[in-house]
Design brief:
single chain; 390 residues; alpha/beta; Cytidine Deaminase, domain 2; 3 domains; six-stranded mixed beta sheet; five-stranded mixed beta sheet; 14 helices
Length: 390
């Protein structure tokens, strides 16, 4: 990695060229092993690499992220999958090493958003992870190395054009960062805050204990938030993000979006959804889209459209059955990048099984938020650290 500059295909849009990525001091901590990067590729990969690097440091587990448009569509650590989660993640038919498990989880919870993603891996990419990536619709990957055979597998993807980047795991960004907007340069210290379980010490609710899974999941959610376009709220469960409300202008809209995605993830594990029978000719992306459509409006069930996808009419759970199924899932963790101004977010989060909450605090209505958490039997800690990302 001795280069100071990488030429990019174009900037944010194809008409914005020429474009480049460069450093003013030292050398780039990136090496292009295959393909040609674009501006957004680099943004996604740099944010994704920072996320998984910090997530592994916070949990000690292999981590992966699936990035789209400078926010994670998913992030996860290597927690073994149940057979139901593996089917829901479209990962029941492949070898899963710890790193491959982390990526299958990161991509699996919101495959709709992960379509065409940038993959970030905390550890050198092994062959199992490379094979899983190769069969998915993905644009690029970054890792601190590629084990024997893994790079060759990835080079076969996208007709040999798949972007593969290696990063220097020992590289530390400068303390001061700058950004130019409309010709005006702004400068600030880099956000070097590292999420750790120490953030959970200031518990302000009647219930006072975070179990081991909650500690892990709150780290997953909080590290993901640090690299998500604000405002943002993240739901985590079983070592992975299951709902992310990113880039919303109000806190409750963040929570509603994250909660809706979490509900969909749980419903994907319903026995009748796991048992859907597809025509062999229907690919994974089309299967996923059909499931999402079934769970949102049942359009495919109500007309002849289902015949092109399924071998028999889908037996979709009713609204009451959906509610009953979602209610089975408890112990969800929620992290917020800024304080809750009203209790509406807490009330909505409770409907999706949230029992553990981490937020910065600092609202004039903090006492009302604490009261809402107590009413719902939640444990909440105040971190005092806002994590906006723009």
């Amino acid at each position: 990695m001795a280069e100071k500059e990488i030429s990019l295909r174009y900037g944010m849009n194809p008409h914005q060229k020429p474009a480049r990525a460069y450093v003013t001091d030292g050398v780039l901590p990136l090496r292009v092993l295959n393909g040609a990067p674009g501006f957004i590729n680099i943004l996604d990969l740099l944010n994704g690499w920072a996320l998984v690097r910090e997530l592994k440091a916070a949990t000690g587990l292999a981590a992966a992220a699936s990035f789209k448009h400078v926010s994670p569509a998913g992030a996860a650590v290597a927690v073994a999958m149940s057979s139901e989660v593996a089917v829901a993640s479209f990962a029941d038919d492949v070898e899963l090493t710890p790193l491959a498990t982390a990526y299958a989880r990161a991509r699996g919870a919101d495959r709709l958003s992960s379509f065409g993603d940038a993959v970030a891996l905390s550890d050198p990419c092994d062959q199992a992870t490379a094979r899983f990536i190769r069969r998915e619709v993905s644009d690029c990957v970054i890792a601190p190395g590629y084990e024997s055979g893994a790079l060759e597998i990835l080079k076969e993807k996208s007709g040999g054009r798949y972007l593969v980047i290696e990063t220097d795991p020992d590289w530390t960004p400068p303390e001061i960062e700058t950004r130019m907007v409309q010709g005006i340069v702004m400068e600030q210290p880099r956000n070097a805050f590292q999420a750790t379980p120490e953030m959970l010490k200031n518990i302000v609710t009647a219930k006072k204990e975070f179990n081991e899974s909650a500690v892990r999941d709150l780290m997953v959610a909080t590290v993901a938030l640090k690299y998500t376009q604000s405002n943002s709220v993240a739901f985590a469960y079983d070592g992975q993000i299951i709902g992310l409300g990113a880039g919303q202008q109000s806190r409750v809209h963040c929570t509603r979006l994250a909660g809706a995605k979490a509900d969909t993830w749980f419903l994907r594990q319903h026995p009748r959804i796991l048992g859907l029978e597809f025509h062999d000719s229907v690919g994974r992306a089309e299967r996923n889209n059909a499931i999402e459509q079934l769970l949102s409006d049942s359009q495919l069930q109500d007309d002849d459209a289902w015949k092109a996808v399924f071998t028999r009419r889908p037996d979709v759970p009713t609204a009451s059955e959906k509610s009953a199924w979602i209610a089975r899932f408890r112990g969800v963790s929620l992290s917020s990048d800024a304080f809750f101004p009203f209790r509406d977010s807490i009330d909505r989060a409770a409907r999706s099984g949230v029992e553990f909450v981490l937020q910065p605090g600092g609202s004039v209505r903090d006492e009302g938020i604490i009261e809402a958490c107590n009413e719902h039997g939640m444990v909440m800690a105040i971190s005092g650290v806002r994590l906006f990302h723009h």
